[in-house]
Amino acid sequence: MRLRYLHYDVFTRDALAGNQLAVFLDGRGLVVATMQAVAREMNFSESTFILPPERADTERRMRIFTPAVEMPMAGHPTIGTAFALAHAGVIAAGRPRFVFGLNVGPVPVDLEWTAEQLRFAWMTQAPPTYGPFVDGGAVAAAIGLDMRDLIPNRPVHTISCGVEYLIVPLRDPSCVHRASPDSGALRRLASIIGMDLPLYLFAPSPGAPTALECRMFAPGLGVLEDPATGSAAGPLGCYVVRHGLVKGADAQRIVISQGVAMGRPSRIHVAITGGPAAITTVKVGGEAVLVGEGELLL
Which of 186, 191, 9, 210 is nearest to 200 (CA)? Predict the structure, then answer.
């Protein structure tokens, strides 16, 4: 069996930056175990497999795998796969919207074009659900920081827009950069707080509250650190709006910088509508660039 794939760097316009993605354009005939093994072979944060639609309100089924697990949804795979399908002609040039069928259900992606070239894509994520507050000191210690590095009077707690993350508010970007991921410490943290979730650290840039510096650690998903995490960007946008760090119209223009510590800088755009008490729409957007293509021989 020959499996053709396209290799994209996502949440960047520059090759060899952003988050790597392998898009397998035709996943028909593959069982789940093979998809998982292929994702492990590629060893990117995620790989996607395209299948015929399973319901009338979607246009392609997409399954998303990290090297360790299948994901219910994810951001950079959704954005990057939209670019891949536009490149392959599956999405016609100029089309304004395409709907993927993910494990969470239909996920619409709004498309912006320059002539026949896809320029930018926005995925709509689910409205937020909020989980419990957790011990900020224990979280800080697990990443080599302490309570002084946290934003005062802002909680550490879980938020999901399809995938649950533990959102960790840090005082400034230097704290984000000093964080030291340690898989053993993160496993001990999971035991202490009773949940094994990806951590998404952020800090506002000085004088620019809509510019957020971030890192994401998820050893439980087979990804110690991720250079760009679209499924966490939506929950983070909800966090900063809910807790008053970003207000009013600024919620429509949040920009996340991630991957700098890994040498793969990424830019993720977030647009939130509604207010702190009732967020109504969560959109995450970005660019992608094709950097390679090939076949696996199975």
Answer: 186
Domains of the chain with bracketed CATH: 2-125+287-297 (3.10.310.10), 129-282 (3.10.310.10)
Amino acid letter, 277: A
Write down the catalytic residue from 46, 59, 225, 287.
46
The three-class DSSP label of residue 60 is strand
Count CA atoms within 13 Å of residue 11 on its CB side. 32
Query: What's the Rg (C-alpha) of the chain?
Result: 18
112 counts as catalytic: no
Q: What is the pLDDT of residues 29-62, one digit of tens each?
A: 999 999 999 999 999 999 999 999 999 999 999 9
Output the pLDDT for position 183: 80
Torsion of CA 58, 274, 257, 138, to 10 degrees: -100
Helix (H, G, I), strand (E, B) or coil at 161: coil
pTM of structure = 0.97
Mean pLDDT of 152-175: 98
182 pLDDT above the threshold of 90: no
Which is it for the CA torsion 4, 99, 35, 226, positive or negative? Answer: positive
Q: Which helix (H) or strand (E) holds 188?
A: helix 183-193
Query: Tokens 């219910």 sit at which residue?
Result: 72
Residue type, 158: T
